[in-house]
Amino acid sequence: MQELTHYINGAHVKGTSGRFSDVYNPATGEVQAKTPLASAAEMDAAVQAAMAAQPAWAATNPQRRARVLMAFVGLLNRDMDKLAEALSREHGKTFPDAKGDVQRGLEVVEYCIGAPELLKGEFTDGAGPGIDIYSMRQPLGVTAGITPFNFPAMIPMWMFAPAIACGNAFILKPSERDPSVPLMLAELMEEAGLPKGILQVVNGDKEAVDAIIDHDVIQSIGFVGSTPIAEYIYGRGCSNGKRVQCFGGAKNHMIVMPDADMDQAADALVGAGYGAAGERCMAISVAVPVGDETADRLIEKLVPRIEKLKVGPYTAGDDVDYGPVVTAAAKEKIHGLVQSGIDQGAELVVDGRDFSLQGYEDGFFVGPHLFDKVTPDMDIYQQEIFGPVLSTVRAGSYEEALKLAMDHEMGNGTAIFTRDGDAARDFANRVNVGMIGVNVPIPVPLAYHTFGGWKKSAFGDLNQHGPDAFKFYTRTKTITSRWPSGIKEGGEFHFKQME
Ligand code: NAD
Question: Which CATH number fits domain 2-248+457-480: 3.30.70.100, 3.30.1060.10, 3.40.605.10, 3.30.930.10?
Fold first, then answer.
């Protein structure tokens, strides 16, 4: 059995804690590797290496730092298939979807190549007699990130690219479910020219996370994962004096107005509800048709589309719509919630419970489910299912639909499908959710905008990527300087180059 490692100070390092976690191939149910779970001492070894390397990296000018990211983009493109294959093998998502995971991370790396522009400070000339005031953005020092299983390439890159572009060292604690791609990314960053110790990967579970939260040297923590862990890390990290941003779970509603193009809405719902087996924080898990007639038309369009979905292993290439869920425990949780929906009176219109795939009977596949007549008091409405289960809540009016989205404790993303510009504008203005789609089911902003939810979907003031990331990974220093007038130096005749 393959034994995975940590990546500390430029080398693969075996785990020494004696604790390991199984890494599965979700399509077959087989254990394909084991990953070490770090102790606090192993985390400290990474922190010491980061501390030693970071000052020289911070002193490297931003253009040179950006050149490492430029080379990294080339290497990501060179190794795209290899990365996507490793990702699909551990996560289970389809091969095209795994490439998308790498691609959406790569786009943030591309954005971070603009670091010299983004890190420019502010300057006031002549704020008083002989007085100038200027501000600069300086790196924090040693930073850390903790990432979820569902985007093992994209989310680590969303964190480490801006952190490193700003001159920080970064320690990544990826999900123990699919740690191979993060290790490959760290190797590629060094191949691109990153000095040892600036990007390290320490695998682990709660013990490694607690070692990050409690380490005095670590200045900031980025977290993406479920809401209870986000709340825990945010609370304890902030009280330890760190800068913390934590992104949590979701329950994304899609409002379907009576005037919507129903074929378009149904296509969008199928992709956004069942793509990646529903294991996306921006998946649509609740459809909210406005009016019974709209609901009936929508369900009629949805059912044949859902029944046609092809569920299978990533090795089937383009011939499969979604793959297995990540673990047997995730499958069991989804089936448990489906049962609760039935018990609490929702109508199961498409029943995926008996789904089985010949030759992959031990894989963690879950068939597609569609519920109608779900009500807000039901567990399937209140909880994040994170599986291929779409719930329909019928709303009597637009105001009722808006209120549903607003009253839910999660506020990551939401969408409205309509031909009415006024309804769309009103929805976008009033709804208390971070990312809104107008006739767009999964409104994930591109790299140069920022990504983040509201309410229990995010904790902290700044979003991921875009300009916010450059604020999160730097501190502002403001200098007020006075230079009394005196004898000026002689002229300089050489045109200096930035080295
Ligand atoms: P998770 O919360 O189980 O794990 C996330 C990370 O936290 C992992 O690295 C894990 O090792 C660590 N962790 C787990 N238990 C811990 C504990 N008790 N103490 C400290 N650390 C712990 O989440 P997951 O199952 O990997 O990912 C799915 C969740 O992530 C979903 O809720 C999804 O909505 C959310 N998510 C949110 C976003 C977003 O941007 N808001 C993006 C992707 C995923």
Answer: 3.40.605.10
